[in-house]
Amino acid sequence: MAYETEGKDLDRATITQGVSAVFADETKGFYVVAEDEVEVVGSLMITYEWSDWRNAWFWWIQSVYIKPEHRGKRIYTLLYDFVKAKASKSDVCGFRLYAETENTHAQAVYLRVGMEKPNYVMFEESL
User: Domains in the chain, please, with CATH?
Assistant: First the structure.
């Protein structure tokens, strides 16, 4: 997934441990999957960010993946609508996600479902 969308070749053992950590500890987040009759066709992960300004949670949408043969079938919209309904029953004030700047197709999908580009720039430092 990361190689396909970002050209990043990730370490399988690290990924396996990271995914397992989410399943083992619900405070880290949760996964949502879309299935057709026989297989998983898409997924995303939700992680949490506390907002002191809003006294509520932002849910970060991460690790979005739709199998290539199922793209264009509104699978992401189904996942997003499910997460939105779940959030409406929780102390959630909004969603956030990041997208590669070159991934204009994904950005168009996010805008189509109602997300907006905020006036923030993301920074990071790997340790």
Answer: 2-112 (3.40.630.30)
